[in-house]
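Q: I'm writing up a methods section and want to include an example of the input and output format. Could you take the sequence below and give the corresponding predicted structure tokens, formatted cleanly so I can copy it straight into the document?
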Amino acid sequence: MTIRKDNLIDATFATGALRRLNHMNRIMNRRQQLLQALLTFDEPLNLIAQELAQFEWDHEGEPVLVAPLHIVSILNRFLSNQLNAKQVEEWANMIECREDLDYESENQKQLEQVIYELANYKDEQD
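A: Here is the clean output for your methods example:
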């Protein structure tokens, strides 16, 4: 069996393209993991923000969905003193206006409004 030079070039090109595709998949998976960690506030926000800053702002892929459960969970943690008002505000600010996040369609307007209100919280004592 003789290996032709053009076949070798095609195989090399295909291998390189496959490696690039695998690398892009790992990057996209990491982005989605970080967004899930943000929505559930599973990691410190400053660490999530640092890692998310490594990605381009524009996002062409499938967005991660913000669900009512995410907001309810954060508010429950606030009410049980696991989070303070500043942390909730920072969390909502990180979510607001991201292209890689979207809202469940049946509750989109309400979810957007709640995130907006939490992100722009003003303490009446100020």
